[in-house]
Amino acid sequence: MCAFRLLAVALLLLGLTWTARAATFSAEAKVALERARAAEARFALAEALELYREADRLAPGNSVILQKIAQQLSDLSLDAASDAERKTQAEQALAYARRAVELAPENAVNVLSLAICYGKMGIYGDTRAKIGYSRLVKIEAERAAALDPNYDWAQHVLGRWHYEVADLGVAKRFFVRLIYGGLPAASFEEAIRRLERAVALAPNRVPHHLELGFAFLAAGRVADARASFARGLALPSTELYDESSKQRAREALARF
User: How far is 137 from 131, CA to CA, in rounded Å?
Assistant: First the structure.
């Protein structure tokens, strides 16, 4: 069920607004945070992880820092040397994401981070686990979108969840329903609606346009898919997964 892998790889680029609470940090914690943000900005994820962990030691119990640790672990797990190491890092990311949500359950960034970590865990389980985690992805992404309807990444995750689940096909969905109780209803129409909303909220983000293109393609709207791919490919790559997203789009374009 490759859809779960695609969902886990995508959308780990959660934007974060640093709050005034940072002003209460010690000088050492502020330095660690600034260095962590700088490392993350240049995609030095291992360095950023260690600096965020240092900030956590200096200012424990801050949900913003915990979420950022979860994000670095989740991103780094993609490049780990073995499946066992990838799973361990994904489990650690999930633990940090849960702690962040426990501390700040009304923070949409924290909640969506939890959704993404559930998606990552779906890679490593059996079919029953994948289905369970997929349900949790939808639940938490919907909660994030309800907390902040203008959070573009929440709309993106929901759009992607809908088209990937809807694209499983009748036979697979019948099997899942028969053996495991099924997945929540999904549709290409809802996928397109959510991804169009993400594009409207953040029109300069490469992945929003490209994933809308994949949703159009899954729905059989080839001309619309081409147009969305073209818009995404024309934008400059500024974030961690922009180039890999563009490569997926180029490969899709080459097939039709």
Answer: 10
Q: Helix, strand, coil proportions of the chain in percent (round to 5)?
A: 75, 0, 25
Which one-letter amino acid corresponds to residue 142? Answer: E
Give CA separation, 121 vs 94, 191, 235, in Å: 8, 22, 31
DSSP H or E segment with residue 241? none
Residue 67 lies in a domain: yes
Can you read off the two tokens belonging to residue 49?
């992880």
Residue labelled with tokens 């899709």? 252
Residue 194, token pair as written in the block: 């959510």
Provide the CATH number for the domain around residue 68. 1.25.40.10
* Per-residue pLDDT reduced to its tens digit, 59-83: 999 999 999 999 999 999 888 888 8
Residue 239, domain member (yes or no): no
**What's the alpha-carbon Rg for the chain, to the nearest Å?**
18
